[in-house]
């Protein structure tokens, strides 16, 4: 009974999303989308860096379901979360990677948005250096954005720039790599202290973007990171039984949400005109894992990555790795990243989801403010 009600709500959600998608074809809901964060939303910035292989996705079989089966640098079989949220806002896909733009192409593009995200990066400047080689940490992403704001002010004046930025969506999906690395380096620090630093860093970047003119923030919180193929494999290798999530990293993921939520509430109280939409991604993903088949979706594989060899397909996706047949039935594409199908549900939920999954408002409501 309860699950039937739930699936009806999800159908309604899905229809809402579809209706929005049709409406969006006619009009963009906001002038521009600016994207910050990690591999969940990178659309190719790392192609321009000296990053190591796991922090790049510009080789097969990445992009196998992208137009022309092109590996673009997206850590997905197709479109990622930034693409699909941008589509719901009326854009064809994510704005392009900042590093792909030239002095000439950046000028028309910046009025529609730019994607600064970099796979392997995190809130801390140190995050990514261990395994990813070169990445663009959040601090540098914000610095790049400040250069774009200066250029816009020079070309369009301060008032028009402020007006455009205040109506645009600032989409942030970061922090997972900070948590992964906290555990890689032992994870035996003080969890409370780590989380305080984590939320303080998050706050400082939101504040910095606000100072540069951002007002509408869509923020993705941490998913149950212990349930990714890489962490399931890790649990198995440490003597756990097959089928479980890695507990300690899930505990930290879960604890990060109320702290982030409180930080954003405080910031919105303090900063005039700031509005935000925060996903509860832990609850969102847990809901899918608990309800793999509804009228709105059908996942047949929740644990293993589609592209990759070894336990849970966690040993890396590349041209030689095995590929699953039913990509849309897999929650995970590779060791750490969702499939296009899973990101689609996340995007729909960010955009039109109810208060269980996104609060205090969803992105559609944020866009309409
Ligand atoms: C949101 O939707 C989910 C899934 O259908 C449901 O379980 C939950 O009760 C809903 N929450 C609210 C606040 O309506
Ligand atoms: C790229 O990184 C590798 C190892 O991290 C280093 O040996 C190499 O010199 C770097 N190449 C460039 C062009 O910076």
A few lines on this structure:
With 369 residues, the protein is α/β, with parallel strands linked by helices.
Class from secondary-structure proportions:
alpha/beta
Output the CATH homologous superfamily.
SGNH hydrolase
Shape field: globular
Q: Pick out the low-confidence regions.
A: 1-6, 13-18, 20-25
N-to-C SSE string, H for helix and E for strand: HEHHHHEHHEHHEHEEHEH
Q: What ligands are attached or bound here? A: 2-acetamido-2-deoxy-beta-D-glucopyranose
Question: In angstroms, what separates the terminal alpha carbons?
Answer: 36 Å
What is the level 1 CATH name?
Alpha Beta
Largest sheet: 5 strands, mixed
Organism: Oryza brachyantha
GO biological process, one term: lipid catabolic process
Family: Belongs to the 'GDSL' lipolytic enzyme family.
Pfam families: Lipase_GDSL (PF00657)
Name some characteristics of this structure.
Rossmann fold; single chain; five-stranded mixed beta sheet; alpha/beta; two-stranded parallel sheet; 369 residues; globular; 12 helices
Kindly describe this structure.
By secondary structure, this protein is α/β, with parallel strands linked by helices. It has helices at 2-26, 81-88, 106-110, 138-156, 158-167, 176-184, 191-211, 229-237, 247-270, 281-290, 340-352, 363-368, and strands at residues 33-37, 169-173, 216-220, 275-279, 301-305, 330-332, 358-359. It has a single domain (4-368), classed as SGNH hydrolase (Rossmann fold). The chain has twelve helices and seven strands. The structure holds 2-acetamido-2-deoxy-beta-D-glucopyranose (2 copies). Residues 50, 133 line the site of one 2-acetamido-2-deoxy-beta-D-glucopyranose.
């Amino acid at each position: 009974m309860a699950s039937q009600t739930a699936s009806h709500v999800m159908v309604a959600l899905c229809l809402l999303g579809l209706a929005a998608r049709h409406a969006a074809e006619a009009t963009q809901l906001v002038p521009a989308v600016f994207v910050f964060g990690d591999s969940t939303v990178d659309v190719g910035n790392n192609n321009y860096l000296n990053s190591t292989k796991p922090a790049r996705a510009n080789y097969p079989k990445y992009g196998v379901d992208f137009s022309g089966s092109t590996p673009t640098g997206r850590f997905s079989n197709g479109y990622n979360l930034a693409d699909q949220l941008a589509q719901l806002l009326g854009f064809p896909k994510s704005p392009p990677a900042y590093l792909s733009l030239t002095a000439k192409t950046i000028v028309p593009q910046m009025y529609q948005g730019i994607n600064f995200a970099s796979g392997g990066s995190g809130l801390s400047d140190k995050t990514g250096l261990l395994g990813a080689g070169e990445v663009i940490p959040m601090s540098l992403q914000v610095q790049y954005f400040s250069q774009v704001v200066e250029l816009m002010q020079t070309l369009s004046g301060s008032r028009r720039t402020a007006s455009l930025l205040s109506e645009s969506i600032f989409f942030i999906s970061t922090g997972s790599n900070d948590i992964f690395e906290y555990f890689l380096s032992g994870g035996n620090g003080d969890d409370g202290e780590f989380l305080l630093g984590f939320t303080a860093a998050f706050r400082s970047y939101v504040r910095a973007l606000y100072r540069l003119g951002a007002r509408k923030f869509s923020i993705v919180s941490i998913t149950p990171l212990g349930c990714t193929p890489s962490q399931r494999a890790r649990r198995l290798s440490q003597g756990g039984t097959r089928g479980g999530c890695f507990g300690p990293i899930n505990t930290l993921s879960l604890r990060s949400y109320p702290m982030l939520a409180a930080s954003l509430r405080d910031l919105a109280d303090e900063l005039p005109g700031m509005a935000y939409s925060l996903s509860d991604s832990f609850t969102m993903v847990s809901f899918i894992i608990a309800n793999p088949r509804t009228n709105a979706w059908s996942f047949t594989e929740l644990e293993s990555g589609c592209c990759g060899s070894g336990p849970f397909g966690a040993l890396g996706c590349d041209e030689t790795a095995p590929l699953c047949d039913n990509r849309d039935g897999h929650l995970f594409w590779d060791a750490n990243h969702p499939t296009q199908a899973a990101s689609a549900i996340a995007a729909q939920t960010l955009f039109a989801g109810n208060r269980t999954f996104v609060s205090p408002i969803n992105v559609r409501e944020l866009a309409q403010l």
